[in-house]
Amino acid sequence: SSQSPISINRHKGQRSQKFPNFLKLKIPTGGDILHGMLENDGYSFRVQIIGGTTDVKLTDGPLKGKTYSLRQFHFHFPCTEEITASEHSIEGQKYTAEAHFIFFNDKYSSFEAAENQPDGLVVLALLINIGDDCVFKGICQLKNITDNIIEARIN
């Protein structure tokens, strides 16, 4: 089912006693490299992780003991005169950019096997405010380059 966009109202929210632990993002600190495919999705670019599971994991909190592996990430960011590009909002305020990290449940053999299951996917969204010294200017240039690219392997 579709769950976007979401508008979070902090005053109506309550900390759930069912999930006393916070969500944990586990990122390996060794010299491991993620291999991915840079793709143009028609709106932005995304990076698809190549291979099965990765060492970047999401666990705990509302995931109830399940572990999810990073499969893809992409950004919503302004490369035009548009001021806000976030899909979601807090207290009705949209943000200038948003990053989505897509994880799939490790109990399934692949992302494709998980994507249509009710517990198959988790999306971690980060809302980003951009100042005058915008790191996204480089990403906008990358987006302009990828306008003419369908796929590119990255290591």
TrEMBL record:
InterPro entries according to UniProt: CA_dom, CA_dom_sf, Carbonic_anhydrase_a-class, Carbonic_anhydrase_a-class_CS
Domain Alpha-carbonic anhydrase, first and last residues per copy: 1-155
Primary enzyme class: lyase
EC number(s) reported in the record: 4.2.1.1
SMART domains to which the protein is assigned, alphabetical: Carb_anhydrase
Secretion signal span: none
UniProt superkingdom: Eukaryota
Gene Ontology MF annotations: carbonate dehydratase activity; zinc ion binding
Reactions catalysed according to its record: hydrogencarbonate + H(+) = CO2 + H2O
UniProt keyword terms in alphabetical order: Lyase, Metal-binding, Zinc
Cofactor: Zn(2+)
Protein family: Belongs to the alpha-carbonic anhydrase family.
Known role: Reversible hydration of carbon dioxide.
Name of the protein in its database record: Carbonic anhydrase
Species for this entry: Myxobolus squamalis
